[in-house]
Design brief:
This protein has helices at residues 3-33, 39-56, 58-95, 114-148, 161-189, 195-213, 217-230. It is mainly alpha-helical and 234 residues long. Helix 4 (114-148) runs antiparallel to helix 5 and helix 5 runs antiparallel to helix 6 (195-213). The radius of gyration is 22 Å and the shape is elongated. The relative contact order is 0.16.
């Protein structure tokens, strides 16, 4: 394959993915160092208090706990089903001989040879497969938490509230990773029509993720005040 036919694919697609990777690495750093400045960190803290409250008064809140976790399982199931359906569709396109694999070469920038088209479909397929894997594992952990959260609080019981929180957080984190892989794969679907759309859509997702992942400036003062009060030494 000649360089002049694929230089846009080689430059723009990895560059768009690089911006997304840098943003999520920075987000992970913020979650570890300043958790209360991110929505993910606040949700982690809220889930911990929720599990403690559910297990402390389990006789009255057991149904509420099961229904809440069931809703989380349904959301992960929906995303896993969507991912595997898209994988099946892409696999059917890859194995077919129809003209759907042949783009409109006159209106698309970038390479559109057989090797590049196979690379596009396989890359998108891998993203959706890993998204399906993460959501499936998330369902497994949330199902475990669904059973453990209603276990009797006995001194001999090893399913302590801290252990249940840990299991639930594993499921929630896998669900978040699966969602991000799914969202990253959506711009890659546009790679079929050229690398330019992939680059612009990947860049557009970064500020969108930022608005969804971080606490608005108007609420940062209140969140920090609550956080300082929570972790204030007694």
């Amino acid at each position: 394959m000649e360089w002049r036919k694929c230089y846009l694919d080689v430059l723009l697609v990895p560059l768009g993915l690089f911006f997304s990777m840098v943003y999520h690495a920075w987000l992970w750093h913020k979650v570890r160092t300043q958790p209360l400045s991110t929505i993910i960190g606040i949700n982690v803290t809220g889930r911990r208090f929720w599990v403690l409250a559910m297990m402390k008064d389990n006789d009255k809140k057991n149904i509420l706990a099961v229904q809440t976790l069931r809703n989380a399982i349904m959301g992960a199931t929906l995303m896993a089903t969507t991912s595997i359906l898209l994988c099946s569709g892409l696999a059917a396109v890859i194995s077919s001989t129809y003209s759907i694999k042949k783009p409109l070469t006159d209106t698309i920038y970038g390479a559109h040879g057989e090797f590049m088209m196979a690379l596009k479909y396989v890359t998108i397929l891998l993203f959706f497969l890993f998204s399906f894997l993460c959501h499936s594992l998330s369902i497994r952990f949330v199902n475990q938490a669904n059973f453990l959260i209603n276990t009797p609080q006995d001194p001999m019981n090893v399913a302590t509230p801290d252990y249940v929180v840990e299991v639930l957080e594993k499921g929630s984190m896998l669900n978040t990773v699966g969602n991000r892989l799914f969202y990253t794969a959506l711009p890659l679907l546009l790679w079929i029509f050229g690398p330019v759309l992939v680059f612009f859509c990947s860049i557009t997702l970064v500020p969108l993720f930022y608005n969804l992942d971080f606490v608005p400036p108007s609420r940062k003062g209140k969140v920090n005040e609550i956080g300082n009060r929570e972790f204030e030494p007694v």
